[in-house]
Design goal:
By secondary structure, the chain is mostly helical. The protein has four helices and two strands. A two-stranded antiparallel ribbon has the order 1-2. Helix 2 (32-51) packs antiparallel against helix 3 (56-118). The protein is flat, with a radius of gyration of 33 Å.
């Protein structure tokens, strides 16, 4: 009986050593609320136990509850500040992208006006590229946005015009 037990133990150890299915999981970080609660709980319990000299257990419990609540509130405030900062950063990035897109459109319009003023046609490479594309792929000649019937997003020709729907998006969504 002892020999069977040892044999089964050896098989179990070897299977655990040579199995490739165990993978390390990504460590989940603590939220600011959890950090604040734990720090507040410890500090409050210690302070409560020191202050209440007659019954240190009750003082520690009361101090822990009060400290934990205060720590959670501080952590929640910190988390809200982080979220607000991330929201502002995303808005700033979106504004910078809109400005860059407007500058690109303005530069293309200046180039097109200069080309029309000088009376020359588009460069040969662009003409050969437009000739190589199927006729229905582009909405207008020289347009950089392809038009496909099955696309989930359509180009927004009124991008930036706040009086129209989807003014903040370069693409407008199909509503069906």
């Amino acid at each position: 009986m002892k020999r069977i037990s040892q044999l089964l133990s050896l098989v179990l150890v070897l299977s655990l050593l040579f199995s490739q299915t165990a993978q390390a999981q990504e460590k989940k970080r603590w939220s600011p609320q959890a950090k604040g609660t734990v720090i507040g709980l410890g500090a409050g319990a210690l302070t409560g136990a020191v202050i209440n000299k007659r019954n240190r257990v009750v003082g520690g419990a009361v101090g822990g509850v009060v400290g934990g609540a205060a720590g959670y509130a501080i952590g929640k405030h910190k988390d809200n500040k982080n979220k607000e900062a991330a929201r502002i950063a995303a808005a700033n990035r979106a504004a910078a992208e809109r400005v860059a897109a407007a500058n690109r459109r303005a530069e293309l319009a200046r180039q097109e006006a200069a080309r029309a003023k000088s009376g020359t046609s588009a460069p040969a490479s662009a003409a050969s590229l437009a000739a190589a594309q199927p006729a229905g792929l582009y909405a207008t000649k020289g347009s950089a946005m392809p038009q496909t019937a099955s696309a989930a997003f359509l180009p927004n020709t009124s991008y930036g015009d706040r009086s129209t729907p989807y003014s903040t998006s370069e693409y407008r969504r199909k509503s069906w």
